[in-house]
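Appendix B. Chain record.
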Amino acid sequence: MQSPATVPVTTRSVQRTLLIIGGAEDRIGRSIVLKRFVKLAGGRRSRIVLIPTASSFAGEVAQAYRDVFTRLRGGEVTVVDPVTRRDANDPEMVEALDAATGVFITGGSQVKLAQNIVGTPVGDAILRAHDRGAVVAGTSAGASIMSRYMISLGEEGVTPRQRVSQISAGLGLVEDIIIDQHFDQRGRYGRLMSIVAASPSLLGMGIDENTAAEIRGDATMTVIGSGAIFLVNARNAITDAPEARRGAPLLVSGAVVHSLPTGSTFDLGEVELTDFIERHPDIEGSVVPAQVRTERTRSTAH
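Structure tokens predicted for this chain:
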């Protein structure tokens, strides 16, 4: 019989949350997506770690997000920016992540994230943060890095074509799903379809701009923001991916697609819609002038 000192202590179950954003999220209006991140991170009591490593202008991007998180009444913001893979061994960076209640990975280059973060002490600290219940968010490239395998390069367009995309290792916060972003705005339907045609065990998830997938636990996803999330399930589809020549249009027949606007709740494990509440996103987020859209797209591309 165990003594009282050795009896295991029952702890409260941890609620793991991811916020995966399709890029170009509203930073100057109602900021619904970013406001949700701040709330999940703890609001005024939050300790946010911002990772601008993907960007070519990390300093400017970090300041822009610091300003918006302050406006949204977030708490302390710390920047962690490993410029090289060696930098990602820095104990101070790891310590900041181990204390975080929210982690936010900005947009830019997926390849830079794969090179400088995946499989490093900083990358491991992000995984630990998620495991202990800190919300982990990523936008644009920061969204793609969430999955075990990510699209690091690829042609855009509607028609799926053979071998026009490149896959790199991601963080693995999301299993069995491959994520693409700026989905509708940059016409990335074809490249997502081509990936799941060749790897039908993966679900394809395409996220529009100013739109986010909030994933709780391992499977429950809700959609927020002004756009939609496109999910494609090719597990029972017919395809010529094994035989098609490089660059050829792919046969993909029998794939099941789901278009999920805000208000949708989806079970990623069972791959089925579980609830839908009709909602109307704010007009500023839904109908953005062309000039503003262009400026936002440019800002998230760096």
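Further analysis of this model is presented in Appendix C.
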